[in-house]
Amino acid sequence: MADSLDTPATEHGGAPSLRPYQREAVARVVTHFRHFDAPAVVVLPTGSGKSLVIAELARLARGRVLVLAHVRELVEQNQAKYRAYGLKADIFSAGLGRKEAGRQVVFGSVQSVVRNLGTFSDGAFTLLVIDECHRVSPDEGTSYRKVIDHLSQANPRLKVLGLTATPYRLGQGFIYHRHHHGMVRGDADCFFRDCVFEQPLRLMVKRGYLAPPVHRDAAVERYDFSALRPASSGLFREDELDRVVAGHRATPGIVAEVIERARDRRGVMLFAATVAHAEEILGYLPTGRAALVTGATAGRERERLIAAFKARSVKYLVNVAVLTTGFDAPHVDLIAILRPTESVGLYQQIVGRGLRLAPGKTDCLVLDYAGNPWDLYAPEVGSPKPANDTEPVQVECPACGHANLYWGRRDGDLVIEHFGRRCQGLVNVDTAEPALPGEARRTRQCAFRYRFKVCEACGAENDIAARQCHGCRARLVDPDDKLREALKLRDARVLRVSGMALEATVNGRGLPRLKVIYHDEDGATLAEWFALETPAQRAAFAVAFLRDHLRAPGSRWSPCTPEEVITEQHRLRAPDFVVGRQAGRHWRVREKLFDYTGRYRRAEVAG
C-alpha cells in the first residue's frame, strides 16, 4: 500500500473529503498492513461512510484490489465512491449484468466471484476488502473462505480487510481476536486477528455525523415475544413467530399508531416478524402509499419498489429481514420494529437504517412494539445472552485491572453475578503490565480466570469447557467420570444439590464458625465449616469457598464474620454436585462440581 496518506482527497479531481475518523481508519489500516499480514477489521457504524474508506484504501493500494460485498446494492455503492475520485474500476456481479475483472480495482459480489474463481487467477491481488465482513463464516469451504483461499494461493501475503458496523455473528460472538484498545474479544482462532479501528455509534451521534435516534414508548398494546427462544442457529423459528403475530389483535392498533406518529415524517420503515405478518401490516397501511419487500420479491419488482420509496412516492416500506444491510435511504426518519431481534447487532442494523443525515432531518423516531431488550449504544458482549434479565456489566480484573464486559446481574450499582470465564485484557509479554491502546503486538491475554477447571496433574487452571490441560497437555478428568467413580465407592456420598444453607455456629471450643450445608432432593446432606477470625483464615476461605461460590467471581468482597457472609448470601451460588468421603464417623466434602453440563441430571431441571 502507498507510503503516504498526507495528500487530501479533495486534490484528486474534486473527490469527496474524508471526515477525521475516516482518515484515521485509513491510516490505521495502512500502518497495520505495513507491518503485518494478519486479517484486520475496521468497525464503523451504519451510515458512517464505509464506502468512502474503501475507496480511499483502493486508491492508495499499490497492487490489485478486490472489494467484495454480499448484495449488488453495496457493490454499486462502493464502486460509485471510487469513481468519485475520477478513477475507473471494474464490476464483477451477475446481478448488475457485468463481469469485468481486468482493471487494477474490481468491485464484485461474493456469489459471482466464487462461481468464477478461474477469472481471478491471473494477476495476483494484494488487497481483499470485504464489506459487511461479519458475514464471513468461521467454517472452511464457505463462499468468502473459498475466495480468500484462491487469492492466497497466488499471493501468500494477501492482505484481507473487513469492514462492518456489527463485528459479531450469532453462535460465534466477536469475529476478531484482539481490539486495538488492548483487549481480547473473540477466540484465538478467529479468522480476523485485529480490530485496528472502531468508531463508537454514540460518538457519531454526538458529533453530528448521524441523526439522533429518539425512542418513544408505544401507547398501544405490544406483542409479547418473551416466551420465545432462538433455535440452535441463533435465529427465531418462523412458525413460532407466526404463533405470536398471526391475526394478533394488537396489529391494527400498532399500525394505526405508526401512521399517526408518521404524520410529520418523510420515510417510514416497518420491520415485520414473518411474511404473513408483513402482508397483514401492509393491509392496514394507506393504499398506494405503502410497499412490501420480502426475500421472495422478484429482483426487478424489488428495485421498482425501493426506487419508489427513495423517490418518496411511497412513504411506508414494510420488509421481512431483507433491508437490514446494504440499503441506503437517508430520508428515513421513522423505524417501527414489530419483530424480536436476536442480537444487539441486528437491532443496530435495523435502527441504523434511519440514522443517516438528510437535508431538513433532525432525528429518527424509533418505535419498538416487540419489547426488544437491547440498548442501541451498549457494546456487544460477544456471547449469547444467558437469560432475559441479564445485562452487560463491567467487571474489573483483580490481576491486571482490565474492565471486562460480561453478561450479568446487578443489585443497584453492585454486580452480584456475571458469566465471564477469563479476563479479556491484553498484557505485555515481558512485563505482564496492561497493554497500551494500539499495542496489539508483543502482548498476550491476561491469565486470570474467573471460572476454571483445575488440572489434577499440574494444577493449572483451564477453561471450564477444556478437555486437555493447556499447561501439561494432560487429559482433564471428565466430571462424569468423577461422578461415576464416586458412585461406585461405598465410603462416598454424591449429592445432586437442590439447595445450600448457611448457619452461624460455634465449634466445640465455642469459637465462631460458618457452617455450609448442602442438601439434595431427598433430604440427604453434607456440610463443611469455615473459620474467619484471622487474616489467614479469611484468605483460606476465599480460596477454598468464595472463589468457586461467588456468582460474580473476582469480586473484591472479603467478609470477616459468618454473619456477614449470611447477610450477603445472595451473592453466592450452590454447586451442581457435591461428593463427600467418609472420615471416621463423619463425612467430609471432597469435590464440588460447578457449571456441570454432563449426562447426569441436575436438581434444577427435575421434572
TrEMBL record:
InterPro entries for the chain: Helicase/UvrB_N, Helicase_ATP-bd, Helicase_C-like, Helicase_Restrict-Modif_Enz, P-loop_NTPase, Ribosomal_zn-bd
Pfam family, one: Helicase_C
Every Helicase C-terminal domain range: 254-399
Gene Ontology molecular function, alphabetical: ATP binding; DNA binding; hydrolase activity
Domain of life: Bacteria
One GO CC term on file: cytosol
Stretches assigned to the Helicase ATP-binding domain: 41-185
One biological process term in Gene Ontology: translation
UniProt xrefs under PANTHER family: ATP-DEPENDENT HELICASE IRC3-RELATED, TYPE I RESTRICTION ENZYME ECOKI R PROTEIN
Name assigned to this protein: DNA repair protein RadD
Organism: Halomonas cerina
